[in-house]
Design brief:
With 293 residues, the protein is mainly alpha-helical. Helices cover 70% and strands 0% of the residues. The protein is built from twelve helices and no strands. The longest helix has 37 residues. 38% of the residues are buried.
Length: 293
């Protein structure tokens, strides 16, 4: 009898022949890591004198094309585009991490409590979250940005409100299905209080999809932040921020000055693509039905 083929475990088969989504996730991780390093190293480059300050006005020349002295050229406001592009990643990470963290901290507990308690509280929170969810994210962020004003924390708050319902809905639905499992019923019958059940028995079982939502929200937050900056909202104008730089570059673009728009726009696009690829790869890893044998 011919020996049977050795069957590798699922996770080893996935790593031996990764799917296209998993391969693209590694590409996304590389892009994301590049922008993380850019944000972390930009202040060091400035301190060593390797780049100019992103807020330093250059008296001459304005609108200089890329050259050895200014790798990405200069803008019409007298800024070095290379320096502004590097520090733009720092501003993006600051706002995006704060925004997604705030929405996660608010949405996950609300979803767990709503799904577990049920009743009037669940119906009231569902109505509130569905109302917020139906509003266009960019429009809601613009409205909130007018109310809270400019700044990193204010921009993060304006962005985070529209993401809370996403965490709430996914965690609430998982909680409703898991709370009827036998191990939860056993814990309640043994006298476990609500906090113990939520923290010890439900939490780890209802957050599997949260990393996916977190990553995709981060990509969306970068686009929304860029939109706020393009409209003159979000961060102060002197802050190096890609959306604001694109707004300034739009005026000079018809005259053939392409570099002031190309590099900030390319950085914003690559960062969004990188985070989106990571989110899609995580989605395949978290959801076994999406995996290929």
């Amino acid at each position: 009898m011919a020996p049977s083929r050795l069957q590798l475990p699922r996770f080893l088969r996935l790593s031996a022949r990764p799917s296209l989504s998993m391969q693209m996730m590694w590409v996304g991780l590389a892009i994301t890591l590049f922008f993380v390093l850019t944000a972390l190293l930009a202040p060091t480059f400035l301190a060593r004198g390797w780049i100019q300050s992103p807020t330093e006005f250059l008296s001459n020349p304005l609108h200089e094309p890329p050259s050895p002295s200014h790798w990405f050229g200069t803008s019409g406001l007298g800024y070095d585009v290379f320096s502004r592009t590097l520090f733009g990643s720092q501003a993006a990470w600051q706002v995006v991490i704060l925004a997604t963290a705030l929405s996660l901290v608010a949405g996950v507990p609300l979803g767990m409590v709503s799904g577990y308690v049920g009743g009037r509280l669940d119906r009231a929170l569902l109505f509130l979250m569905d109302t917020i969810y139906t509003l266009p994210g960019l429009l809601l962020s613009i409205t909130l940005a007018f109310v809270v004003g400019r700044g990193v924390l204010n921009a993060a708050i304006a962005l985070s409100i529209s993401y809370i319902p996403q965490y709430y809905r996914i965690v609430r639905n998982h909680t409703v299905s898991v709370k009827t499992e036998l191990f939860v019923e056993a814990a309640r019958s043994m006298g476990a209080d609500t906090w113990t059940v939520l923290s010890r028995y439900l939490f780890l079982n209802v957050i599997q999809s949260v990393p996916v939502v977190f990553t995709l929200n981060a990509a969306d937050a970068i686009l929304t932040l860029g939109g706020l900056g393009f409209l003159g909202l979000g961060l102060p104008e002197e802050t190096a921020e890609w959306g604001h730089d694109l707004r300034q570059a739009l005026e000079a673009l018809p005259t053939g000055i392409w570099w002031t728009a190309l590099f900030p726009g390319l950085a914003l696009t690559l960062m969004v693509v990188g985070l989106s690829l990571v989110g899609e790869g995580l989605n395949e890893f978290v959801n076994p039905k999406l995996r290929r044998e």
